[in-house]
Amino acid sequence: MNMTDEQLLGLLRSDRETGLQAVMSAYSGLVYSVAAGILAGEEDRREVVNDTFYKVWRLRDEIDLSRAGLKSYVAMVARSCSLDKLKTLRPHEPLSDNEADLGIDVDFEDERSAKINEKIIAECISAMPSPDREIFISRFYFEKPVSEIARELGLSERRVEYILAKDKRRLRKALIKRGILI
């Protein structure tokens, strides 16, 4: 029997074990597909499937179906868990204090300010042209070494460093212009 998102979520909230089994039955293929698109290892993919459903189960009372369907929510959690797993698998060279510093102090302590600042940063990065956006995300989110980014994109290390410096300056200007909360 196919259940609606409302029915699945209701069951997950009222009968945790049966509800979890029903949600897993409905969406395990989707979660595995999301993980397979990001991770190479079978064991890592299975771990992400487990992590995803654990997180959905843990946050069951906070899921708001008026914002998105349960399928979309599960896919979003799967992507987040997959990216988190990918970050743990990649060796990285830590960002130096100088490299990570935009030259402004951003308030991420106050919850309201943090949400506004994160939104501004995400919009600024999304507006970057390709391959700048991919380079920026690879370096500052995944903390990949410049040499690896250059190799993956077929660019020189010097070109990657130039793009990073240019985009960092551009991001700083955009943040100040858009009124980032300090």
Short account of what is shown:
This protein has 182 residues and is mainly α. Helix content is 70%, strand content 0%. Helix 1 (5-14) packs across helix 2.
Structure description:
The chain is mostly helical and 182 residues long. The chain folds into two domains: 5-89, RNA polymerase sigma factor, region 2, helix turn helix motif (Rna Polymerase Sigma Factor, Chain: A), CATH 1.10.1740; 97-177, PhyR, sigma-like (SL) domain (Butyryl-CoA Dehydrogenase, subunit A, domain 3), CATH 1.20.140.160. The protein is 70% helix and 0% strand. It has helices at residues 5-14, 16-38, 42-58, 70-89, 97-100, 111-126, 132-140, 146-153, 157-177. The longest helix has 23 residues, at 16-38. The protein is globular, with a radius of gyration of 20 Å. The mean pLDDT is 82.
Sequence-ordered SSE layout with sheet pairings:
Elements: H1 5-14, H2 16-38, H3 42-58, H4 70-89, H5 97-100, H6 111-126, H7 132-140, H8 146-153, H9 157-177
Helix pairs in contact: 1-2, 2-3, 2-4, 3-4, 7-9, 8-9
Key traits:
2 domains, Rna Polymerase Sigma Factor, Chain: A, 182 residues, mainly alpha
Under CATH, the topology of the largest domain is which?
Rna Polymerase Sigma Factor, Chain: A
Low-confidence stretches: none
Radius of gyration: 20 Å
Rough outline: globular
Q: Tell me the helix content.
A: over 70%
Main sheet properties:
none
Q: What's the number of structural domains?
A: 2
Q: What class do helices, strands and sheet pairing give?
A: mainly alpha
**CATH second-level architecture of the largest domain:** Orthogonal Bundle
Q: Please indicate the percent range of residues in DSSP E strands (runs of 2 or more).
A: under 5%
Number of strands: 0
According to CATH, what is the class of the largest domain? Mainly Alpha
Q: What's the SSE pattern?
A: HHHHHHHHH
* CATH homologous superfamily descriptor of the largest domain: RNA polymerase sigma factor, region 2, helix turn helix motif
> Gap between N and C termini, in Å?
52 Å
Overall mean pLDDT score?
82
**Number of distinct helices:** 9
